[in-house]
Amino acid sequence: MGQPLTRILLDTDLAMGAPGADIDDGLALALALADPGLRVELVTTVSGNSDVATSTRLTRELLELLGHADVPVVEGAPAGGDAAAEIARRLLAEPGELTVVAIGPLTNVARAVASDPRVAAAAREIVVMGGVFLEQTNVAAMPGEYNFWCDPDAAQAVLTSGAALRLVGLDVTRKVRLSRADTKALAAGGEFGRFAATHIEGWIDAQNRTKPRDQLEQDSCALHDPLAVAVVTRPDLVTWQDAHVAVETAGRVTRGVAIADLLMWENPPAPNCRIATAVDVEAFTALFTERMAALP
């Protein structure tokens, strides 16, 4: 008997398919569908990398390209969509059975846990790509990691919800990258590989223009969201540490900044999550490459 499937609800601000837009949410969705240990039961959309209506459309188009048009997509915040209600409904219908994987701003997830005090405990766990914990962004205009910075109140609400949380932050995800050479290899694959490679090249070009002094971003892009998806079934890809994390919601210069107490002093606060502190880059890259090559 193989391992049982982990059933997930994926919450995303997907933008892959728009010229020059961020691509890691799209690659994360593809990776989730390619993982034999995962079953994607619902995709919900949120404003972030794209407006929510565009994200919803692009998500449906990408699911169709990947041969999974049957996966339901529900639009969410800020347009007053039903995503939060649907997340809550599904979690409450099957307590302990469903994992939420949140790879965009946490607006939908926060609204879901706020809708009923039972929702947070009903999630098997919530895995989040968000925050930066052992480093900082070093960007005054966006001091918090993007997903937390977009909606810091939502991030703080999720952290105080009592849900079982694992957080994969920017300081770890920036270390797993896709180069132009990797993109050419992806283009040699199937229809999705060719589609993805075109948009990855556009995103790398955009990064080169907008972040000219960021040497890490030159001619490559980070696989932030794919790493968060990968750790659902492969937690061994990263090093985990218990922590108590809080997010600054009102700071004049620190919007969205996550403060991680690593529980090192006497009488520490109670942990409210586990954070990723390191990543096995080689193992993740091998996994990602293998799964992408298997896509149609």
TrEMBL record:
Recorded superkingdom: Bacteria
Biological processes per GO annotation: purine nucleoside catabolic process
Xref: InterPro entries: Inosine/uridine_hydrolase_dom (IPR001910), IUNH (IPR023186), Ribo_hydro-like (IPR036452)
Keywords: Glycosidase, Hydrolase
Any GO MF annotation of the entry: purine nucleosidase activity
Keyword Iron: no
Pfam families in UniProt: IU_nuc_hydro
A cellular component term, taken from the record's GO annotations: cytosol
Keyword Hydrolase: yes
Domain Inosine/uridine-preferring nucleoside hydrolase per the UniProt entry, residue ranges: 8-285
Xref: Gene3D superfamilies: Ribonucleoside hydrolase-like
Protein name: Inosine/uridine-preferring nucleoside hydrolase domain-containing protein
